[in-house]
Design a protein that fits this description.
Distance between the termini: 61 Å
Strand content: under 5%
Structural class: mainly alpha
Number of helices: 12
Shape: elongated
Length: about 290
Amino acid sequence: MQAYVDDFANYLSGIKHKSQNTVLSYHRDASQFVTYLRAHHIDRFEKTTKTTILSYLLSLRQNGRAESTISRSIASIRSFYDYLILCGIEMKNPTAQLETPHTERKLPQILTTTEVELLMEQPDESGIKGVRDKAMLELLYATGIRVSELIHLKVNDVNLSVGFIRCREGKRERIVPIGTIAKMALSRYLSNARTQLVRSEGETALFLNCNGSEISRQGFWKIIKQYRKQANIQKDITPHTLRHSFAAHLLENGADLKSIQEMLGHADISSTQVYANLVSNKLKDVYAKAHPRA
């Protein structure tokens, strides 16, 4: 049964061109579901019913899983059964009539412009590591790209003369402009720091660790946590916080949702709409505090 799960992940990646994060999440959800089936002596997918799925979801709730996790699990398992039927297993999808629980979308946490400035001031640019870190932070905030896109950037994805970077997510590709400050930070990194970090002439990764290879997601998380602590910023900052801040600050300063959607690489504008809600809430808060008759 697990072999089908592994093939399912390959199908999502190679045929459906889903993002790496989606593939990992769906594979994990399907694997956990198969483990549940085995524990309940169900050895064939044809034996599963709607009741089987409901019992599994109940077990997730009893184990304290959030509704958002359960919603994603339903989507993962539904997609997995669609794949099984596509493979020729004769059965009806037992998730077809399941309703996905309504989950309230939480507004993302963003940094103020002052907090962004504080964070950007932390890297010590007298050393190559500080120059690299400064370039990564500036680029992340300047473009709003995902951390997975940041660490997988290649040197030839950067065009400093025109002022843009090229991002790839699976088979999808988009061009994102970069501003003057990020261009300067990138230029310093490419001309000074990267040349000292690189160990192999064939290395194409843009951002390198101290061993001369592509920096990892975990490595960058540690970097951003370190600088948050140095800046004494009380908010919990993740790489996605800078992505959220990029979008919210653009919207606050007059950018339209469609343009922000394109830069973020959102397939559906409803994903971008959350930033409009965030700005709307902020305006309400400003009004409530400032208007004499609020």
